[in-house]
Amino acid sequence: MVIIRRALEEDKIILANFYRDYWFWNNTKVDHEYMIILDKKKLLGFSEIKNFNNFIAEIINIYVNEDVRNQGLGDGLLRASMNYIEKNGSEWVVIQQNEALENFLFKKGLQLLKDIKVPPSIREYLKEYNNSTTLLCNIPLFFQKGCKNKKSMG
Asked: Which of 19, 40, 56, 63 has its CA 20 to 30 A from that of 117?
């Protein structure tokens, strides 16, 4: 049975050992949270989350093992990550665009910063991000409407 859940401390060791040779892996961080996909005890994927404050968080990595892609696990992982972020008080999530995730994230309704009227309450937190390569989503709207076709979220 496949489950998606927040990684426990002992899971972080498994996570680090499993992905240590992958280009995107940079060891687990104390101030980051991880969501994992497990089938029994086999690791199928993960996301890495950095919470900034009660307004906004960043999903730094989303990865599903190549041999189990196109089975809805990426969608489940994204939704579980956003649910976790929202339950911990943030309404917004940013994700740095990358080629591998670009189509997936656009299909899920995330939009580039340059295409969104950013609310004043989070502008300060977004200054360091590139407007042309950073995706933003209002989490309650994501769950309500999938973020699609929203030009103004404030």
From this structure: 63
| Residue 102 to residue 85: CA distance in whole angstroms | 21
Ranges of beta strands (E only) in the chain are: 2-6, 32-39, 42-51, 56-64, 92-96, 111-112, 134-138
Report DSSP letters for 113-133, one per residue: GGGSB--HHHHGGGTTS-TTT
CA nearest neighbour of 47 among 1, 93, 110? 93
- Find tokens 């992982």 and name the residue: 77
Query: Where are the chain's structural domains?
Result: 2-145
Place of tokens 């996570």: 15
The CATH-assigned architecture of domain 2-145 is 3-Layer(aba) Sandwich (3.40)
Walk along the chain (154 residues) and give the pLDDT tens digit of each residue: 999 999 988 888 888 777 777 655 666 667 789 999 999 888 999 999 998 777 899 999 899 998 999 899 999 999 999 999 999 999 999 998 877 787 888 888 889 999 988 889 888 889 889 999 999 999 998 998 754 434 444 4
For residues 6 and 81, give the distance between their C-alpha atoms in angstroms, rounded to a whole number. Answer: 8
